[in-house]
Amino acid sequence: QVEVVESGGGLVPPGGSLRLSCAASADTVSISGMGWHRQVPGKSREWVCSIAISDGSTYCTDPYRGRFTIAKDNAKNTLYLQMNSLKLEDTGVYYCKAGDSWGQGTQVTVSS
Question: Angle at CA 52, nearest 5°, toward 41 and 55?
């Protein structure tokens, strides 16, 4: 089973950018996809963006499309989430998912 570890979270002002990383413990060729999800206290985890391992196709949900970009470096077994034009409502813990495995999450806080 692939294990993942996120990094790159932090505090950023509105309109700023951050890049999250998700390092996988093993080759991800055996899983169908990887993705990013966001969670805030008291709410369920929300799908942000995902990428298919087979062909690299990507998808981001409406609140994030056009501002966030998901990408994968296959040589490094690392998934990225480039977040631009950040808004206050993007605040939350961002989790990486690889197959059925979840990371521990990384906090992103958008605040002035």
Answer: 160
Cα separation, 34 vs 50, whole angstroms: 6
Tens-digit pLDDT profile for the chain (112 aa)? 889 999 999 999 999 999 999 999 877 777 789 999 999 999 999 999 999 988 999 999 999 999 999 999 988 999 999 999 999 999 999 999 998 899 999 999 999 9
The answer to whether the CB of 72 falls within 8 A of the CB of 80 is yes
In angstroms, rounded to a whole number, what is the distance separating the alpha carbons of residues 14 and 84? 10
Beta-carbon contacts of 29 under 8 Å, excluding residues fewer than 6 positions away, are 53
